[in-house]
Amino acid sequence: MSGASAPEIEGVRVVRRAALAATAVDVLEADGYLLGTPANLGYMSGALKHFFDQVYYPCLDETRGRPFGYYVHGGSDTTGAVRAVESVTTGLGWQRAAPAVSVAGEPGKADLEACWELGAALAAGLME
Questions:
Q1: Where does the pLDDT of residue 93 fall: very low under 50, low under 70, confident under 90, or very high at 90 and above?
Q2: pLDDT higher than 70, residue 56
Q3: Beta bridge partners of residue 48, listed in sequence order
Q4: What pTM does this model have?
Q5: To which H or E segment does residue 64 belong?
Q6: Alpha-carbon distance 109 to 15, whole Å?
Q7: How many angstroms separate the first and last alpha carbons of the chain?
Q8: Rounded CA gap, 90 and 64, in Å?
Q9: How confident is the model at residue 51 (pLDDT cuts 50, 70, 90)?
């Protein structure tokens, strides 16, 4: 997320919400979305699933085409979580602004840099 707040990013306000606290109003008011989740038991977190369950239909038509990015971190495998996030965001009609970041195991320097780039790419695409 820090990449979205880089000094060279202008005209973009970053609002951070935990998945269990984010609402459909938050989604409707945002111009883009940066999502993150652990891979739990081969799936996205329950909190992110709850978020999607709460916002899917209220936001379906009005947010179609908005940019998003996401990252997934798992102990050994992120395949199921990646598939789940891709499925829901495809259904919403959101457009991926940058490649997803998927990390299995302990994150290294390259993984952290990829997350920074993800945030920066999404924010840069939203600059006025």
A1: very high
A2: yes
A3: none
A4: 0.92
A5: none
A6: 25
A7: 19
A8: 9
A9: very high
Give me the phi and psi of 105, to 5 degrees please.
90, -165
What are the start-end ranges of the H helices in 16-108?
Answer: 24-29, 46-59, 79-92
Report d(CA 35, CA 17) in Å as an integer.
Answer: 10
Q: Measure the CA–CA gap between 119 and 115, rounded to whole angstroms.
A: 6
**Inter-axis angle of helices 79-92 and 46-59, nearest 10:** 10
- pLDDT interval class at 9 (50, 70, 90): confident
Q: In the chain, what are the helix, strand and coil shares in percent, each to the nearest 5? A: 45, 15, 40
Judge whether 41 and 6 are in contact, CB under 8 Å: no
Query: Do the Cβ atoms of 91 and 122 come closer than 8 Å?
Result: no
Residue 122 sits at the vertex; the CA angle it makes with 124 and 45, to the nearest 5 degrees, is 160
Q: Residues with Cβ < 8 Å from 10, sequence gap 6 or more?
A: 127, 128
